[in-house]
Write a structure and sequence with these properties.
The structure holds two protein chains of two kinds.
Chain A: H1 3-21, E1 29-32, E2 44-47
Antiparallel strand pairs in A: 1-2
Chain B: H1 8-35, H2 41-68, E1 71-72, E2 76-77, H3 101-119, H4 129-152, H5 157-161, H6 169-187, H7 203-222, H8 230-258, H9 263-277, H10 286-309, H11 318-336, H12 354-385, H13 392-397, H14 399-404
Antiparallel strand pairs in B: 1-2
Helix pairs in contact in B: 1-2, 1-3, 1-7, 2-3, 2-4, 3-4, 3-6, 4-6, 4-12, 6-11, 6-12, 7-8, 7-9, 8-9, 8-10, 9-10, 9-11, 10-11, 11-12
C-alpha cells in the first residue's frame, strides 16, 4: 500500500471516529406564551 | 506541418465549462451575500455581478493578451493580442490544440472574472463602490494577468520552472486570498468589529451559494483539461471527492470546537476543499484528493481561528479559505502528483520526486509576494484618487442604501442590521 493511500485511510478514520465522539450538546428551549395583544397565536420556543 | 483540427467534443466541453465557471461568480455573490448583514447584501452581490461585466470587457481588450500573449522576458504577455487581434478560431498549439483559440480565451476569461470577485469578501460592508471599481480593474491588470502569465503563459518563468497548477491554486486562490488579507489590513476594521455581534443575515443563501459554487467548479477543474477525455474525468472525480472530504472534516473539527455541527461550517469546508484541490485536480489520484480535502478542512479552519485571534477584519475569511487553502493545495500538488494520472506532468514527493515540492514552494512564495506588494501599491494609489472606505454614517446606514440607493428587501428601509 502506498503512503498516499495510508494517509487517506487514516484521514477518513479520524473524521468518522471524530463524529462518533463528538459532543451532543443540544440547545434547550422552553415554551413562552405570547402577550395577549400579540399577533402570534401559538406559544413560541425560546432558547435557554 | 499538419494544421490543427478542431474537435467538436472538446470544444463543446470547454464552452460548457466556461458557462459553468461563469455561474460561479454570481454564486459567489450569494455565498458572500448570505454572510453579511441585511443592509449590505445587495452591495455584496453587486460586487460580484459588476466584476463579471467589468473583467469580461477588460479581458478581450487587453487582459488576455497580457496573460497569454506572446511572451516578453518570461514575466508578461505582449500586446500583440490586444482586442483579440490574432485570436481567432484556429486552435493555438501552446494552449489547447483541439479547440478554437477563442474558446480557450473565453474559458480563461471566466477565471479572470472570478478571481478579483473573491477579494470582495475581505472588504465587504465598508468599501466605497468607486474605489472598488478602480481597484478591481487595476488589480486584474497588474496582479492577475502577470501571475497568470508566469504560471500558465507559454514562456512564463514559473511555467518554465515546472510549477504545477492545473486550475489556479496560485493564479486564482493564492493571489486573491493574499490580496484579501492586505485589503483587510489597509481598509481597517468595520465599525463595531470585536465589540458587537456581526452575524450572517441569511445562512440559507450562503449554503445555496456554496452548492452552486460546487456545481460550477466542475467546469473550473475538469474543464481545465481543455479536452473531453480521461484527464477531465479524473479531475471531475477528485474535485468532488476532496470537496466532500473537506466539508466532512471541517464539520467534525468545528463540532468538537464549538460543540455543535454547523451548516455554515459545512458550506465553508466544501469551498475550502474546492480551493485546495484546484491546483492538484489534474495531477493527483482519488486517495491524494482525500488527503488534500482532509488537510483543507483542518488548516483553513485553523487559519480562521488565527485570523480571529489577530483581530483582522477579513470580513468573509477570504484569506483563510482561499489564501491558505490555495497554499495547501499548491503544496499538496507537489506532494501527491503522479504521472499515472497525468503523464505530461511530474511526480510529487510521495512518488519519488522531492524536487517538485521545492518548485511548488517557489511558485507559492512568488505568488504571495507579488499579490501582497501589488495589492498594497494599488490600494494606496486608488486612495489618492478616491477614498477607499465609505464614511461612518454611510457604513452605519449600510452600503445598499448609501452606495446604490436601493434596499435588498422590500420594507427593509434604513435597517441598521
Amino acid at each position: 500500500m502506498d503512503p498516499t493511500t495510508i494517509m487517506a485511510i487514516v484521514a477518513c478514520a479520524i473524521v468518522f471516529i471524530g463524529w462518533l465522539g463528538a459532543p451532543t450538546k443540544v440547545a434547550k428551549a422552553k415554551a413562552v406564551q405570547p402577550p395577549v395583544d400579540s399577533e402570534v397565536r401559538e406559544p413560541v420556543l425560546e432558547a435557554v | 506541418m499538419t494544421p490543427l483540427k478542431v474537435d467538436s467534443g472538446d470544444t463543446a466541453w470547454v464552452l460548457a465549462s466556461a458557462a459553468l465557471v461563469m455561474l460561479m461568480t454570481p454564486a459567489l455573490g450569494f455565498f458572500y451575500g448570505g454572510l453579511v448583514r441585511r443592509k449590505n447584501v445587495l452591495s455584496t452581490i453587486t460586487h460580484s455581478f459588476f466584476i463579471l461585466c467589468l473583467i469580461s470587457v477588460q479581458w478581450v481588450l487587453w487582459g488576455y493578451s497580457l496573460a497569454f500573449g506572446p511572451d516578453k522576458w518570461h514575466i508578461i504577455g505582449g500586446l500583440e493580442w490586444v482586442g483579440l487581434n490574432n485570436v481567432g478560431f484556429t486552435p493555438n498549439a501552446d494552449y489547447a490544440p483541439t479547440i478554437p483559440h477563442q474558446a480557450y480565451m473565453v474559458f480563461q476569461m471566466m477565471f479572470a472574472v472570478i478571481t478579483p470577485a473573491l477579494i470582495t469578501g475581505a472588504f465587504a460592508e465598508r468599501k466605497r463602490f468607486k474605489a472598488f471599481v478602480l481597484f478591481s480593474l487595476l488589480w486584474a491588470t497588474f496582479v492577475y494577468d502577470p501571475i497568470a502569465h508566469w504560471v500558465w503563459g507559454a514562456g512564463g518563468w514559473l511555467h518554465n520552472l515546472g510549477a504545477l497548477d492545473f486550475a489556479g491554486g496560485t493564479v486564482v486562490h493564492i493571489s486573491s486570498g493574499v490580496s484579501a488579507l492586505v485589503a483587510a489590513l489597509v481598509l481597517g476594521r468595520r465599525i463595531g468589529f470585536g465589540s458587537m455581534r456581526i452575524e450572517p443575515h441569511d445562512a440559507t443563501m450562503t449554503v445555496l451559494g456554496a452548492s452552486l459554487l460546487w456545481f460550477g467548479w466542475f467546469g473550473f477543474n475538469a474543464g481545465s483539461a481543455v479536452a473531453a477525455g480521461q484527464l477531465a474525468t479524473s479531475a471531475f472525480v477528485v474535485t468532488n471527492t476532496a470537496t466532500a472530504m473537506a466539508a466532512l472534516t471541517w464539520l467534525t473539527v468545528s463540532w468538537w470546537h464549538k460543540r455543535q455541527p454547523s451548516a455554515l461550517g459545512a458550506a465553508a469546508g466544501a469551498v475550502a476543499g474546492l480551493v485546495a484541490i484546484t491546483p492538484a485536480s489534474g495531477f493527483v489520484n482519488v486517495m491524494g484528493a482525500i488527503v488534500i480535502g482532509f488537510g483543507a478542512g483542518v488548516v483553513c479552519y485553523a487559519a480562521i481561528q488565527l485570523r480571529e485571534r489577530l483581530k483582522v477584519d477579513d470580513a468573509l475569511d477570504v484569506w483563510a479559505v482561499h489564501g491558505v487553502g490555495g497554499t495547501w493545495g499548491a503544496l499538496g500538488t507537489g506532494l501527491f502528483a503522479t504521472v499515472a494520472i497525468n503523464s505530461g506532468a511530474a511526480n510529487g514527493l510521495f512518488y519519488g520526486n522531492p524536487k517538485q515540492a521545492l518548485v511548488q514552494l517557489v511558485a507559492i512564495g512568488a505568488s504571495w509576494a507579488w499579490a501582497a506588494i501589488g495589492t498594497f501599491a494599488i490600494l494606496k494609489f486608488v486612495n489618492l484618487i478616491v477614498p477607499l472606505r465609505v464614511d461612518e454614517e454611510e457604513e452605519a446606514l449600510g452600503l445598499d442604501l448609501s452606495q446604490h440607493g436601493e434596499p435588498a428587501y422590500a420594507g427593509a428601509g434604513a435597517s441598521l442590521n
